[in-house]
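Re: that chain you flagged

S.,

Sorry for the slow reply, it's been a week of failed gels. I finally had a moment to sit down with the sequence you sent. For the record, here it is as I used it:
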Amino acid sequence: MTLALLLTAIVMSAQVASVKIAPKYQKGDNMLYRSVGTMTVGGEIVNLTSLNRYYIAEANKDGYVIETVLEKMDNDAKDLTGKILQLMQGGLKGVKTVFTADADGKITGIKNFDEVREQATKMVEELMKALIEEMPEAAGVLPTDMLKNQITSRITEEAVVAQVANSPGPFSLNGKTISTGTMDESKDVNGRKVKNMYFLSAPDGSKVKSTTTLNMSKEDMKKMVVEQVKAMMPDQAEMVEQNIDQLMESGMMKMESTVTADYEFLPNGWLKSLRVVQKQENMGQFTEMNMKTELVEE
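Prediction finished late last night. Pasting the structure tokens below so you have them in one place:
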């Protein structure tokens, strides 16, 4: 009887359900999503609302061409955070990004990347101006040109595609084969190594839960901090490098991040709803975001 139970357990464990996320988009699909939630920065709670449209311009056996547009982004922040978010809205609102995707809907490139990068660069320039206006005393101290160059140098097609693939959204699971307990590794929008774990909340893959946590060793963090200082404050790099161990031990460089995402899909693979909760501590700064994205019926 013991042997029979053991064999049954082995067979059952080998039959764990797995589902490949491969939506079947159709040319002309036109989906509008509303995201509503809050972001907590420095103890202040900011309410956020945005509308994003997705349109399938081409669909064939090899893949898709997907047009995306930010139609609206509002917030009720009153300080510099609000001004920055408003500038982001002004810089990105109405800008069409044309993605290419493979047959599983996984994003592979951006057809109009030069146009997108130009718009993003203009937005960064406006952000730098806003910082100086809000903090005129820092005009001669804040390395705005260096900051601008550092930020714009990271706006590459590869980086934007990776952000779409690794940030919770309509396309982030496309191409993945998932069973409960499936894990993989990637990098977040800040270039940090993270570990992702997936759970099937419904056997057919219509509901999926993911958790994402930092997956960086102490040496990884030290290297990342030193590289960032070298890029943004090169005159301080040697001092930071010499004292990095002490800084790490003091807790000043502490980094923690947890993201949970609950997906629900329509039968054709389009996202129906998405709930994302992110909690993060980065060098003493705490942020939390709680967002719900839902398909809008037009």
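What I noticed first: The two ends are 60 Å apart (CA to CA).

Talk soon,
D.
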